[in-house]
Amino acid sequence: MTISLRPVEEDDLPFLHRLTSDPGSTGEFQWYGFQNPHRMRERWETNGMLSEDGGILIIANDGGAVGLVSWTKQVANRASYYWSMGLIVAPEHRGQGHGTQAQRLIARYLFDHSVVNRIEATTEITNVAEQRALEKAGFTREGVLRGCGFRAGRWHDGVLYSMIRSDLT
Question: What string of pLDDT tens digits covers the 169 residues of the chain?
C-alpha cells in the first residue's frame, strides 16, 4: 500500500461531493446535511482548492482516490497562526490505515511548506477509531472540548489533538 497526497483534479469532484454530501459515504461523524452540489466545483475553479488559508488534497492509494485531507488557517495571535486539519476516508477504504498515513503525510507537508509550529485536529469523543489513528500518526491528546460540535440535532463533545514541529520524527 502506497499512500500519497495529490492536488484535486476535475475528475475528483464527484468523489469529493460524495464524501461530503452523501450520508452513506460521509460516515457517522461527518454527516452535516446535504451540501450545495456545485460548491466543490466552484471552489476548484476559483483556486484548485489550494490557498494561503487552507486547502484540500486527495488521499491516493497507488494513484486511486481513497479520501481527502483538508486544513484551514487559525489565527493564534497577531504574530502567529496554526493549522486545523481533518480528513475523510471513503467507507470502502476505512480500517486499512489510510487515515493514519495521510495524517502523517499532511503534517509533514504543512510543516515543510509553512512556518507554523502547531497543527490541531479534533474529533468527536465517541469516534474512537479516529482518536486511535491520530495517536498512531503522532498527535498528542490535549483534552476534551465540551459541547464543541453540532451534528444530528444536538451538541457533541470533542477531543483535541495536536502536533508541534518538534514532535516529528
Answer: 689 999 999 999 999 998 888 777 766 676 666 778 788 899 999 999 999 999 999 999 988 999 999 999 999 999 999 999 999 999 999 899 999 999 999 999 999 999 999 999 999 999 999 999 999 999 999 999 999 988 888 999 999 999 999 998 6
All structural domains of the chain with their residue ranges? 3-167
Chain centre to alpha carbon of residue 25: 15
Cα 84 → chain centroid: 8
Annotation: CATH topology of 3-167: Aminopeptidase (3.40.630)
Whole-prediction pTM: 0.91
**DSSP H/E element including 54:** strand 54-61
